[in-house]
Write a structure and sequence with these properties.
Blueprint lengths: L1 H8 L5 H19 L14 H14 L23 H17 L15 H30 L5 H12 L2 H11 L2 H17 L2 H12 L9 H13 L6 H20 L6 H11 L14 H8 L8 H25 L3 H18 L8 H11 L4 H13 L2 H6 L3 H19 L16 H4 L6 H25 L9 H42 L1
């Protein structure tokens, strides 16, 4: 942490380089915001840009008890608020500031679809400020805390690369959302876990969960790690440690929900809005199992929404069991970070009401693993961004997509050098009876060849999506192919990250022995 503190206090001679790096991170975000956004000029519903603006209008003008209810001044069919209380409070703060600058931006029932230059500038600034306050510092601190074997400049360069992950840039600063807030809180929670500050981690993750309910994707690893750590605690009685964590979690939840707890009907309505069954199994052409199956079998024609909820619940729970039980029994930081990937990827592939942008929740822990497992993480992060291509093309973000993907790939290769093209987990045959046979051939060479084939296929599908009109009979052909292609790879990554988590202890020991011999 000394390098980070020196940078902040201005006593580090590398301060100019740090400043240039941070300025570059901000400039890339600002350049992204100069492009189009979700629903630009498309009435009557517009898109996510209008949804976020509308929430500012509703929260600023209406009493709290009406925020989640359908009333004459709050038509829930027009971008009704369906995120947890912290999102609502954030919307209120932005709405308050917007009203002070120009009341027309949040005028009740009169500001729908407003698209003036000044208002768009204000909205873009709100995302950038949120990013600067929550997400960017979280990633910087994480890299300084976890990459202790590297120099301060190497840690800073790693953070810059993580901060330029194209998926989050395109969705938050292009398409327009505030994922940087919930993901930033989660990054703070992960950093606290790595640092051994379990109570602070609990607070930060509850804040993330109360900003976006999709952070449930990460909930089980936090629960299993903290519970397993309580059971194995040698410094204090495990029950007392568990009570402290539970008290902090409950107290943080109560504070977040306090304005809604006075009326049980209001609380239940908020919960109802957060988990709407009626919205369907998935949205658009998301790259998960159910959308892939629906290409051949229309599930909604054979099952009721209630049945599909139970089917997805069971399959998700089954998918979560291996990684979660392993983490509970072996609550190490390394297993925790891998379990975050596995848990969120299981949710994305098998759960109910998933949309394409949910892949960003999986991408966060993968981004944080990028300095450690560069090849596989780079592959996944490029694929995760590619899986959202139909949405990005719809928003007019094809050029930023291409540029940001190329920039990210070059920076990863430059900062992490040859590691970008290696797959360390497959470098040697594992001496484990039930898995060893999987690694008896040159798996590393095969995976590297597969990587290049995958990249070529992504380029070809991108070109088709951009310049070739699909057949009249199959207007959604390109999005369907992208969804199918991405889903198959995500299933492969689910297997890969499970193998890495279960073999992580063995691989770590082998690497330590190798490094000891080299020295």
């Amino acid at each position: 942490m000394r390098g980070l503190i020196s940078c902040i206090t201005g006593t580090d001679s590398r301060l100019p380089m740090y400043s240039v790096g941070l300025l570059f991170v901000v400039l890339v975000r600002w350049a992204m915001s100069l492009n189009s956004y979700s629903g630009a000029g498309v009435s009557p519903m517009f898109g996510d840009f209008e949804a976020q603006r509308h929430w500012m209008e509703i929260t600023y003008n209406l009493p709290i008890k009406d925020w989640y209810f359908n009333t004459s001044d709050n038509d829930l069919m027009y971008w009704g608020l369906d995120y947890p209380p912290l999102t609502a409070y954030h919307s209120w703060i932005c709405g308050f500031i917007a009203h002070r600058i120009n009341p027309d931006w949040v005028a009740l029932n009169e500001s729908r679809g407003i698209e003036t230059y000044e208002h768009k500038l204000f909205m873009r600034y709100t995302v950038l400020v949120a990013d600067l306050i929550v997400y960017i510092p979280a990633v910087l601190v994480y890299c300084y805390v976890t990459l202790r074997g590297k120099s301060p400049m190497e840690r800073f360069a790693s953070a810059v690369v993580v901060l330029l992950y194209p998926g989050l840039l395109l969705i938050d600063h292009g398409h327009f959302q505030y994922n940087c807030v919930s993901l930033g809180f989660t990054a703070w929670a992960i950093t606290a876990i790595v640092s051994g500050h379990d109570l602070l981690a609990s607070i930060a993750f509850v804040l993330a969960l109360n900003y976006k309910q999709m952070e449930l994707y990460h909930a089980l690893p936090f629960f299993c790690y903290l519970l397993g750590k309580c059971f194995k605690s040698e410094t204090e009685f495990w029950v007392w440690k568990l009570i402290k964590i539970g008290t902090v979690v409950i107290a943080t939840f109560v504070l977040c929900w306090l304005p809604f707890l006075g009326d049980i009907d209001v609380s239940l309505q908020v919960l109802h809005r957060l988990f709407p069954i009626a919205r369907g199994l998935f949205e658009d052409k998301v790259s998960n199992l159910w959308c892939t199956i629906s290409i051949a079998v229309k599930l909604k024609n054979h099952f009721t929404p209630e049945m599909l909820v139970w089917v997805t619940l069971v399959t998700t729970l089954i998918g979560l069991i291996p990684s979660s039980v392993h983490l509970l029994l072996k609550p190490t930081v390394s297993n925790f970070k891998l379990a975050l990937v596995n848990s969120s990827l299981v949710f994305f592939l098998f759960s109910y009401q998933v949309h394409e942008k949910s892949i960003l929740i999986v991408a966060l822990p993968v981004c944080l693993l990028l300095p450690e497992k560069t090849f596989s993480c780079l592959w996944f992060l490029l694929l995760s961004t590619f899986s959202m291509l139909p949405l990005l093309v719809k928003d007019g973000l094809l050029v930023p997509f291409v540029v940001s993907m190329a920039l990210f790939t070059m920076l990863v290769h430059y900062v992490f050098e040859a590691k970008a093209w290696e797959l360390p987990v497959f470098k040697q045959t594992l001496q484990i009876k039930h898995l060893g046979e999987l690694f008896n051939f040159n798996t590393a060479a095969f995976m590297q060849a597969w990587f290049y084939v995958c990249m070529i296929e992504m380029v070809l599908l991108s070109l088709l999506c951009a310049v070739k009109t699909p057949p009249t009979r199959y207007p959604d052909l390109w999005p369907v192919l992208i969804s199918l292609f991405s889903c198959m790879h995500f299933l492969g990554f689910l297997l890969y990250f499970h193998v890495v988590q279960f073999c992580n202890e063995y691989l770590t020991d082998k690497q330590a022995i190798k490094e000891k011999k080299d020295n």
